[in-house]
Amino acid sequence: MAELSTSLDFIVEFYEVDSMKIVWHGNYLNYMERVRCKLLSKIQHNYNQMEEAGYAWPVVKIKVKYIAPLRFLQKARIEAFLNEWENCLKISYKITDLETGKLLTKAESEHIAINVATGETCFVSPKEFTDRVKAYANL
Amino acid sequence: MAELSTSLDFIVEFYEVDSMKIVWHGNYLNYMERVRCKLLSKIQHNYNQMEEAGYAWPVVKIKVKYIAPLRFLQKARIEAFLNEWENCLKISYKITDLETGKLLTKAESEHIAINVATGETCFVSPKEFTDRVKAYANL
Amino acid sequence: MAELSTSLDFIVEFYEVDSMKIVWHGNYLNYMERVRCKLLSKIQHNYNQMEEAGYAWPVVKIKVKYIAPLRFLQKARIEAFLNEWENCLKISYKITDLETGKLLTKAESEHIAINVATGETCFVSPKEFTDRVKAYANL
Amino acid sequence: MAELSTSLDFIVEFYEVDSMKIVWHGNYLNYMERVRCKLLSKIQHNYNQMEEAGYAWPVVKIKVKYIAPLRFLQKARIEAFLNEWENCLKISYKITDLETGKLLTKAESEHIAINVATGETCFVSPKEFTDRVKAYANL
Description:
Low-confidence stretches of chain A: none
Number of helices of chain A: 3
Oligomer: homotetramer
Shape of chain A: elongated
C-alpha cells in the first residue's frame, strides 16, 4: 500500500508568537489543519468534496506533545500520516526544524464522519471516502 | 431618539498579546465584533436574526487608529455607536482603559446588507432591520 | 485540602465559529487558557507573577476530547481543576452547556517550569509556586 | 528609485473562513502582516533586525476596504507597496484573485518607530532603517 502521508513547509509568522517569544501552543492546531487539508486533497477528498458527498468530519480528539518551541521566522516542516480510515480518521503529525531535522512536536487527531442531512454519526467511514483512499493506495 | 450604543468590558488575554508584550493589532477586530454583536442584540437583530430574515451584513470597510497599547491582564471598555443605518451600517468604536478612562483606540466599521438568496447588494437597509432600529429608538 | 478549581462562563463569538457553524476545534485552547489564567490568579500566581519569580510554564501536552459541538451565541461554562502541582502542572478541564449542564468537552494540559535565566527545565515545581498552592489550600 | 514592493501568494485555510463561508474580515490583517514581513526582509530590516537596532514599529493605523470576499481554498495574491518611510512607514496593500487577477481588497497600514529603551516615539525614522531603504533603492 502506497504511503498515505504528506508534508508542508512553513515559516513562523509574527502573529503566531506570544510574549515568551515562542509560538503560542494553540497555533499548532492551525499547522495541523493545513497539512491535513493537503493530505485529503492528495486523495481527492478535501473538505469541499466531503461536503458535496454529504458528510462532515468533525475533530473528536486532539493530542499534542510539545517537545521544543518554534520561534519567529523559524522554518519548519509538518508531516501528516493517515493511520486509520475504515471507521474513523486517525492522523498523526510530526513537526521538525527544516534545517536541522530536529523533532519539535508530535500530535494526533481523530475525526468521525457525520451525515450532514441526518446529523447522524457514521460508525463506518462513507464509501465516497474509502473509495478514494483505496484508489490512491491501489488496494 | 434614544442613543443607539452599547459597551462591553473585557480583560486582555495571554493569547492576544504579541512578543512586544502588547495586544497584536489584528485582535482589536475581535473586540469590535464582540461589542457590535451586543449592539445588534440590543435592537433584537443579531446575526442569527439577520440570517433568518434572509440577509447577511458583510464588513466592507474597517478603520482603526491605535492611540495607546493594551497589555496582558489590562481591563478595558469598548463602546459601539450606531451612526448610520438607513442605507448601510456605520458603527464607530472607542476603547478606553477601565480604571483611568484614558482613550486607547478609535475605530469604525461599515457594513452593507446582502440578500442571501440572490447574492445582491441592498442599497437600502432591509425593512426587517430598520423596523428594529425604529422600534428601539421610538421613531 | 481546599479544592483547587475555578470556572468561567462564556458566550460563543461569531469569529470562533467555522463554516460548519460550530466552534472551530482550535479555539477551545483559548477557552482553556482563559480559565487556566483565572485558576492561577486565584492562588495569586498568574503569568506576570510567574515571570517576576523568574519562571515560565510552557505547555508540554494538550489533550482535548470533543463530545458535542458549541454553536454561535451558545452560553457555556468551562471548569479547570489543578490535579498535580509538585513536579509539573496538570490541569483538567470540562466544558458544559450553561443551561442544560450537558457535558460538551473534556480536556487536559500539562506544563513544566522553565528557569527563564538559565533556560533549564525544573523537575520540581519552583518554591514560589508551591508555596502559593499550599497557602491557598491551607496545607 | 527601485520599486519598494513585494508580493506573496496564499491559499485560504479552513480556519480562516466564517459561517457565511467567506474569510472572516479580521484575518486579512494576518495576510497584511505576512507580506509586510516579506517586504521588510527584502530591504534586510525585518522585525528581529529592528529589535536589535533598538526599535519597534507598532501599527498606528489600519484601513481595509473589502471589495469581494475570499473563499475556502481560493488562491490569491497580496502585494505590499512602501509608500512612505522617512518619518513613518506607510504601506499599501492589494489582494487579487490569483487566476483572474480580479481586485478583492485594498488596504493601508501606518507604523511609527518607538525607541524601545526610552519608550519614546521617533518623529524621524531611525537611520538604521532609512539606510536600508536607501541601499536597497540605490538612492
